[in-house]
Amino acid sequence: MSPNSIVLVVDDEPIGLEVVKALLYDSAYDLHFASNGREALAKTESLRPDLILLDVLMPGMSGYDVCRTIRGTPHLADIPIILLTALNDRDAKIRGIQSGADDFISKPFDRLELSVRVRTILRLNRYRRINLERARFEWVVASAEDGYLLLNSADQITYANTAARRWLDLPMDENAPLDNFLTAAQKCFQCQPEAAWADWPTVAAGTRQLVRAQNESADSFWLSVDVTADESGGDNSYLVRLSDMTQEINQRKLQWSFHSQIQHKFRHPLTALTGHLELLHDDAEGQFDHPQLIENAYRASTHLSREILAVLDYLTRTSDNGGEEKGSCTIEDLIDIAERLEAQLPQIYLRLRSTIHNPRDYEIPISCRQFETILWELFENAIKFHSENSPAVSVIFERQHDMLQMRVEDNGHTLAPEQLKQVWTPYYQAERYYTGQVPGMGLGLSMIAATVWGVGGKCAAFNRSDGQGLVIQLTLPLTALQDATPIYAMAD
After folding, report:
1. CA 460, CA 449: separation in Å to the nearest integer?
2. How far apart are CA 374 and CA 270, in angstroms?
3. The pLDDT of residue 390 is above 60
C-alpha cells in the first residue's frame, strides 16, 4: 500500500467525520472529507481517491445513491467503496451490494477492524491496478510492430511478443520451450558488426544489427537490436527491442551510392568539357585547332550525358524495388573496374593481384555498379587518409573455399583499436577529434558493410602488420558459372 493513498470520508454528521479522522489519523493516509452526497461526488471527481468511506444514511442523497452514481461513471467506477452504516440487517447489506459497495463497516467502529478493512481494500485495489496496467502493457507489446523479448541472465528467452516470434522463427505457442536469444538469432541472421556482439548481452555503445542475406526469393532484411538491463531483481534480466530498419538501410545505401557516383561519374567528362570550351572561349587569336577542340568538347558532353542518364536510370530502378539493387559481376569485371578507376584517380599508385584462374568463370552476388561504388569509396578513403594524398594501394583477390576474399591495402594512417571497432558505424569518421573537417558523409564504410552483409558476406578492418597503413578485407560468396570448373576444384 502506498503511504500516499487518498481516502475520502463522507458523513453528514461532524462527529462521524471526527471519529474516522481520529481512528485513521496516525496512519499514513491522505484524508479528505465531504458532508453530503453532492459534495462527495464533486470531490470524487477532483481527487480520484484510492478509497471512499461512505455513510449510508444521509439526507437528500443517500450513500446508496452516491455509490450507484459512482459505479455508473466509467472513469470512477473502479474506486473501492466501503459503506459505513448503523444498520446491521441482511436487507441493508443486500441493498449495499446491489448499489456496488465493496465492503461494510458497522457503527460504532472498532479501531482494529476499521484499520484492517481499509488496509486490505487498498492493498487489493493496488494489486488490481498493477494487474490492469500489466495487462494493458502486455496487450500493447503483443500487438506492437517492433519485436520485444525478455531475457534472463543466461540469455534464455522468457517472453517474446508476436513480432519477435515471427522474425526469429520462434514457436507461436507461448508454452513451447524457447532457445536462448543468440542461438535463435543466429539460425536466421548474421550478427553484425561482429565486434559489437562480442560482449552480448551487455549494453553496448555501438549499434547491433541482425542481417538476413538476400536470396533468390527474398531481399535482404535488417533488424536493429537495442537492449536494456534490469538489475532491480538481483539477477540481471534484459529487455530487448527489435526494429525493422530495412527501408532505412536501403535509403542510406541509395544516398551513398548516388553521392559516390555523382563525384566520380561526372568529374572527368565535366572537366574535359569545361576545359575545351574555356580554350575555345579564350582563343581570340586562333592559336588552337578549333574543329578538334569542338570535337573533344562534343565527345565530353556526350560522355557526360550518358553518365547522367545512367545515374537517373539507376535511381529509377532502385526506387522501383525499394532501394535494393540486385545483380552480379565476374572476377574479371572486378579487375576491369579497378583498372578503370585507377585511370580516373591519378593520385593512386595501384597494384592488382589475383590468384583466381579463369576469372570470367566466377561471379559474386553484387552488381558491377555496386562494386565500382565500393572500390571508389575505398580509394577515396586511401587518398583522404594519406599524409600526401597520394597512396600506394594494393587490391588482392583470393579464393577462400566458396568465398572471394578481397583485400584493399594502403600505406596511409593506421587507426587506434577503438577507431577500428567503430569504422562500420554510420556517420563515423576516423578523426582523432570529430570536427567534420574530413570530407564525406561518414556513410562510406558502413554502407560498404551493408552491401556486403546484405549478400551474406563479411567485413574486417585492421592495420597492416608490415608497415604503415590500413587493410579493408571484404569476403563475398563466390559462385561458379555454368560449365565452369567447380569452385572446390579450383587451383590456388
Report:
1. 9
2. 22
3. yes
Helices 246-282 and 331-344, packing angle to 10 deg = 40
Within 13 A of 178's CA, how many CA atoms are on the CB side? 27
Name the residue with cell 544489427: 209
If 0-12 CB within 10 Å is exposed, 13-18 middle and 19+ buried, where does residue 315 land?
middle
Within 10 Å of residue 322's Cβ, how many Cβ atoms?
A: 12
What DSSP letter does each residue of 1-56 carry, written as one string?
--TT-EEEEE-SSHHHHHHHHHHHTTSS-EEEEESSHHHHHHHHHHH--SEEEEES
Domain annotation for the chain: domains and CATH numbers? 6-141 (3.40.50.2300), 147-244 (3.30.450.20), 248-320 (1.10.287), 329-489 (3.30.565.10)
* Chain Cα centroid distance, residue 153: 22
Among the listed residues 396, 328, 331, the one whose alpha carbon sits nearest the alpha carbon of residue 361: 331
Contact present, 170 and 184 (Cβ < 8 Å): yes
For residue 274, give every residue at least 6 positions away whose Cβ sits within 8 Å of its Cβ, in sequence order, or none. Answer: none
Instruction: Give the C-alpha separation, 316 to 332, whole Å.
Output: 27
pLDDT at 318 > cutoff 70? no
Helix (H) or strand (E) holding 336: helix 331-344
Residues 6+ apart with CB under 8 A from 427: 441, 442, 443, 446
Read off the pLDDT of residues 34-83 as tens digits, 9 standing for 90 and up: 999 999 999 999 999 999 999 888 888 988 999 999 999 988 988 999 98
pTM above 0.85, yes or no: no
Grid look-up 580509394 returns 379
CA distance 455 to 237: 34
Predicted confidence at residue 435, as pLDDT, reads 34
What is the separation of C-alpha 197 from the centre of its chain, rounded to a whole number of angstroms?
Answer: 15
Average confidence (pLDDT) over 227-240: 75
Calpha distance 25→77 (Å, rounded): 27
pLDDT over 90 at 391, yes or no: yes
Task: List the beta bridge partners of residue 112.
Answer: none
What's the pLDDT score for residue 280?
A: 78
* Amino acid identity for residue 228 in this structure: T
